[in-house]
Amino acid sequence: MLYKDQVLEVEPTGIETVSAEQRHGKPWHLFGVWFSANAEIATWMVGLTVAAFYGTGLRSAAVGILLGNVAGFAVLGILGAMGPRYGVPQMVAGRLAFGRYGNIAPATLSFLAGVGWFAINSVFGAYALQTLAGLPYFLALAIMLALQILLAVYGYNLIHLFERVSVVLLALGFLALAVVTFERARWFGGFNPHAPEASGGPPAAFVFGTALAFSYALGWVPCASDYSRYLPRATRPGSVWWYSFLGCVVPCIVLEIMGAAAVSAAPSVDFTTALPTQAVTALLGAGWIAKLVLVAVVLGTLTANCMNLYSGALAALVAFNVRVKRALAALAVGILGAFLATGGGRPAQMAVAYTNFLLLLSYWASPWAGVVLADWWKHRSKEADPQRVPRWRTGTLAWLIGLAASVPFWNQAWFAGPIARTYPQLGDLSYYVGFLCAAVATAVL
């Protein structure tokens, strides 16, 4: 029996092209996949960061979150259409723009991002499970890690089913948090000049809010076609775009605005140091509603992290060009992520350090997306095979140009570029500069 007809069977396909006989699924399945992947506590924390660290007023934050998500996930929807077209993971499709050798660096960075976010999200999910079930922290972490690795090892079909089934419970859980948060939020509160990163004033706070939402969206772009590549080749690109786009923007916009609203809804909480579970408890107390939300936090960790691990393993196979079965790669990457998640016995402190590192690492994805999008747009009407490409293509140079152009605008805890330091009111424009410069360079080259 073919894999396309099975769920509890380990996916046999790795980074090779999905054969015509194995193609299956409907484009509407993508809505559930992307909704569940983004209905998680890390999405909520994006909005919380905007308000708590940069001092953005709630109305300003809501506008920035809306703009950033629409722009970022529009790109994801377009690249997701490469899945039915080529039948390969996104990092393999990237070879069309970068070449086989030029694609190694982006694939390596995608692998590092996947395993890194897998580790961080596991920490937050373990704290939620610990709070919910009263388990010792490391036992809760072990349970979370085992479930996530199991899903990633089984692969595409089980992940698709799990994500679609999880939609209802995730929606109910976070809806309960939304009702309480929005009822207490100060919608007309303005800019907070006392926030830790508020030196740039209201304009910078708005730019930061938009940039964080945009960069979070682009963080999913390097795996856009990983979850559409089994769809029949005749699938309409417009259907892939709409279901992927809506599945992402609906939970992200709502949850990120919820995160920003939580800062004014619970003024007694120091959100710059509190764990997400502490923030939820402060908002909801310890009743059944709080428990429902903590269940959603645990489930959201599983839905997001199995995809981080799955795509991280695919990226590792592309980057290191090893002939290893996909399931073994997922297991190996999962063990690496588990080691990182232990945090040397201080997981909360290590989660902060990992987050700062990964935010710095995220700058690669914006110019990468600009290159792949521009190359796809120019050559979308031509037949091509991502498995048979030259060693190098000009996308590599365009990517480096976009990356170099963005460096002066970088503005993170571990590094701030010269323009960002000189003009703090500009916020962080690096994501837009890198994306546009790389896309233009691709078109010119």
SSE blueprint:
Blueprint: H1 29-38, H2 41-54, H3 58-80, H4 82-86, H5 90-93, H6 95-98, H7 104-133, H8 137-154, H9 156-184, H10 201-220, H11 237-265, H12 276-284, H13 288-320, H14 326-342, H15 347-361, H16 365-379, H17 395-406, H18 418-422, H19 430-444
Q: Whole-number average pLDDT?
A: 89
User: In this structure, how is the largest beta sheet organized?
Assistant: none
What CATH calls the topology is Hydantoin permease
Whole-number total of structural domains: 1
First-last Cα distance? 47 Å
Secondary-structure-derived class: mainly alpha
Element string (H = helix, E = strand): HHHHHHHHHHHHHHHHHHH
CATH architecture annotation: Orthogonal Bundle
Number of strands: 0
Bin the strand percentage: under 5%
Classified by CATH, the class is: Mainly Alpha
**Uncertain stretches:** none
- For CATH, the homologous superfamily is named as Hydantoin permease
